[in-house]
Design brief:
Blueprint: H1 2-28, H2 34-43, H3 51-61, H4 68-80, H5 94-129, H6 134-148, H7 151-165, H8 184-222, H9 225-232, H10 237-259, H11 261-266, H12 269-275, H13 280-289, H14 293-321
Helix pairs in contact: 1-14, 2-3, 5-6, 5-8, 6-8, 7-8, 7-12, 8-10, 10-14, 12-13, 13-14
């Protein structure tokens, strides 16, 4: 196990390096950038320098006058020291802005993730146990609706019905207009009420695929020979399902759950933008549209690290959920 862990960590470092090279190259090749917009804005002021003069000065200030390889090595050297520079869009250190917005996204993603697992897996198992029944058809239709719904459309419908027509929730934001005048418990309820519609959006849109995946794998397991043997021995259906079948269904589900780890920290860009929640997804969207290379680089590298970590944890969990799986 130790050799496997060391080998996987070494491979992950190599993959992360090449991912960083690709991301930096793409950032440098973007058709529009923050410095170009700033140079254009400063050149429009009366009595100022020309656009080309401002552009050359700003590129030199931000190290963009060097080639892509030299610029990347300079960025990498600073990143290894924990210095990711200042955000061009927000005018504060990248890590400071990241810590400021990450927790709203984490709360939103964690609650949605827990609800997805708590709803999708039991419904998927229930559909598999009663294949071709009314319950199976109802759950399958519900899952297909969730898979087919675009998040921006479903979020817009929720906002129209519950925020505009019924006026139960606010249209956007994380706090209400009278937030500062509320008690501690009132502030908690106010923030919680602003998360209801975004959480419903994320759960409904993402729940379908996990539900269908659980149903498909559970059906395959229930048709296995050892399940027939367990039933022939007189074991109760509850023990057959919950002990023998469910553990073997967990292996492919662990892959999906491990791959979902980045969603806890990466934010839901479309949902956060629609509800104007200033989480990491919405902030990264602002940074990318303005050509903020330092923040965009940090966010994308962070995402790559989470994906590698999720895959690594999934591999380790294989041996936990099924004793037959061992790492040589």
């Amino acid at each position: 196990m130790r050799k496997f862990v060391i080998k996987r960590l070494a491979i992950s470092v190599v993959i992360l390096f090449f991912v960083a090279v690709i991301i930096y190259t793409i950032m440098r090749c973007m058709p529009s950038s923050f410095v170009e917009n700033m140079a254009r804005e400063k050149a429009s002021l009366p009595g100022g320098k020309s656009y080309n003069e401002w552009l050359a000065q700003l590129n030199k200030s931000y190290g963009l006058d060097k080639g892509i390889i030299a610029g990347f090595l300079q960025w990498l050297g600073q990143a290894l020291k924990g210095n990711f520079g200042d955000s061009w869009e927000f005018n504060i250190p990248v890590t400071e802005k990241f810590m400021e917005v990450i927790w709203d996204s984490f709360v939103l993603g964690a609650i949605s993730f827990i609800l997805e697992i708590a709803i999708a897996i039991p419904l998927g198992i229930a559909a598999a146990r009663k294949q071709y029944s009314k319950s199976d058809y109802a759950i399958s239709v519900f899952a297909l609706i969730g898979i087919s719904l675009p998040s921006f459309f479903f979020a817009s419908v929720l906002k129209y019905v519950f925020a505009i027509k019924l006026e139960w929730f606010e249209l956007f934001g994380m706090i209400g207009r009278h937030y500062e005048q509320l008690s501690t418990f009132g502030k908690f309820l106010d923030r919680a009420s602003h998360l209801v519609l975004p959480i419903i959006t994320l759960v409904i849109v993402n729940i379908g695929s996990l539900m269908r995946y659980t149903r498909t794998n559970m059906l395959e397991v229930l048709n296995s020979d050892y399940i027939r043997t367990a039933r022939a021995k007189g074991l109760s259906e509850k023990r057959v399902i919950n002990y023998h079948a469910f553990r073997n269904t967990l292996i492919p589900i662990v892959t999906i759950i491990g791959g979902s780890l980045p969603a806890l920290f990466s934010g839901a860009m479309i949902t956060e933008t629609l509800f104007q929640i200033e989480g990491i997804g919405y902030t990264s969207y602002q940074a990318m549209t303005t050509g903020d290379i330092p923040f965009s680089m940090f966010y994308l590298i962070f995402m790559a690290m989470l994906i590698l970590l999720g895959n690594f944890i999934a591999d380790i969990l294989y041996a936990v959920v099924d004793p037959r799986v061992r790492v040589n």
